[in-house]
Automatic annotation (TrEMBL):
Domain spans labelled HTH lysR-type: 1-58
Record flagged with keyword DNA-binding: yes
Protein's UniProt name: LysR family transcriptional regulator
Family indicated by similarity: Belongs to the LysR transcriptional regulatory family.
Keyword Transcription regulation: yes
Record SUPFAM superfamilies: Periplasmic binding protein-like II, Winged helix' DNA-binding domain
Organism annotation: Megasphaera hominis
CDD domains, sorted: PBP2_LTTR_substrate
Record-linked Gene3D superfamilies: Periplasmic binding protein-like II (3.40.190.10), Winged helix-like DNA-binding domain superfamily/Winged helix DNA-binding domain (1.10.10.10)
Entry keywords, A to Z: DNA-binding, Transcription, Transcription regulation
Recorded superkingdom: Bacteria
Amino acid sequence: MEIRLLRYFVEIAREGNMTRAAQKLHVSQSALSKQMKELETDLHHELFRRTRAGLILTDAGMMLRNRAEDILEMVDKTEDEFAALDEITGGDVSIGCAESHLIAYLAQAIKEFRLTYPRFRFHLFSADTDPLAERLDRGLLDFAVIAEPPDLSKYNYLIFPGTDRWGLVMQKDHPLAAKTAITVDDLLDEDLICSPQCIRFDMPLWCGEKTDQLRFIGTDNLAYNGTICVRQGLGSLLTFEHLANTSEETGLTFRPLEPALEVKMYIIWKKYQVFSPIANLFRKKLIAMYGANRSEAYTGDDSY
């Protein structure tokens, strides 16, 4: 299976139209159609189905699209890394990020690094810990910033200064808005929205067995989308302080949990990872800036 054919297939899947895809790919429609038929023959499955609305993917086509996009992302990343081998003035680094105001420390490191390497380019991917770790393990990310203590058997890590504090975002006229802090008993009759990671990891740390008594009506992985739900009266949002816009015009407010629930942010990378030159230099920059407590945080060797 050729990489070129995968690029053609993905473009057709995105456009839903053979003619438009051929125009974007700068090939003839007949040649593109012929190559897709050959791909279907090689895979022994129909990939597209024609409808009045255009081409839609079959189940086999959906599976191939998921695989193909991952493969092409890895191919592009590998090509970028090899292109950067002789260009230490710049290059690309991919970083997965949990939502946190502590990402400001990452931004500061990038800002300072670009003063020395102005052609350095960064690519951020936002998600919870599990998808970030998965992408890191598959080589699609160079680094990840997560809100859980990392697996020391797999990763080296540094800790950003400060912590994130959990709390409740609610409408300003909510009865709990009159309180200065929110206890677990306050939440027992509330419709709650939060991340799957919060339900699985953070809430059990905070309220133990009472986690099962909380009424989670929905989950999100981006605080912004969660706050939209709160503004529409769907419930209240468990999230980090500073993530939700609680300015006067939003009609929302934040109250911290009591007892306080605070988490650290860890920037991690795979043990024994072979970095591109620019990614390795950026790793050294991170260690120089945030490795003061390296005896506790950094678990790798001294080869930097």
